[in-house]
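User: Quick one: structure for sequence A, then sequence B.

Assistant: Sequence A:
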Amino acid sequence: MNIINKILNVDDYYFDVFMSISEALAGFTVNELQSTGLAEAYYTYVMKSLEAATFVEFLTVSKNILEKSSDEDQLKKAIQTEIIANPGMNDIAGKVITMWYLGTWEGAYINDLSYKEGLVWNLMHSHPPGAKQPGYKSWNIKPVNSYS
């Protein structure tokens, strides 16, 4: 019970592990993830959506991977062997990645901001239609990677 109470404190070490493994899985820096304004909301949402023991196991495996890896290549290999190759861990990792990119968990939006702040929009150099407009006269600027 003590470890569960510890996780409920978002200022806790486990939050840092969650953000660090999210960075490794999503390919965006912790600062970029934090700038969505959703880091704490996502952390608490995942915690409520998974059984406590399952979330603790995912965070413990993640912590061990992060501590053992001295460079990017080691981290990628460790994620591959200890998270991706493990069906249960792979399922959680996939849900975490989808959450950051699309703002959804098992097909449902997490909150009002999650659609707007999905990382997919940054990746596409776009904006979420109907939610965040691109800006005045933006139609006059050629898209990124435009070959026309």
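Sequence B:
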Amino acid sequence: MTQATVDEDGRGEVAALTAAACLFHGFSDRSRLSIVQHLALGEHRVVDLTGHLGLAQSTVSKHLACLLDCGIVTVRPQGRASVYALAHPAATLDLLAAAETLLGLTGDAVVLCPRYGEGAGS
């Protein structure tokens, strides 16, 4: 993230941090992340994604709605189907590459995190 212009009471910084947290929340679900990775390969219909990912149609549709609301994906009609694509493919791929780099640097720390890792809350 770039440093935001901050007004005297810090509202600009708070707004920028809130937006960033919302963006990362859009990527925080394993199913949504799988959908984003598939859309990085090109446009897909819901039926294509359900087949590729082994997820229920309702699950894929729910997560696509979230990604659409967040501005991460776009949708266009094609006959009776809807075709989804990444709204900003280059920026999304850059973000995913940066995440992979950071994950490589942290090793197993993220997975083992007692608050958000695999065993969290159990």
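The first helix runs from residue 11 to 26. The mean pLDDT is 90.

User: Thanks, that's what I needed.
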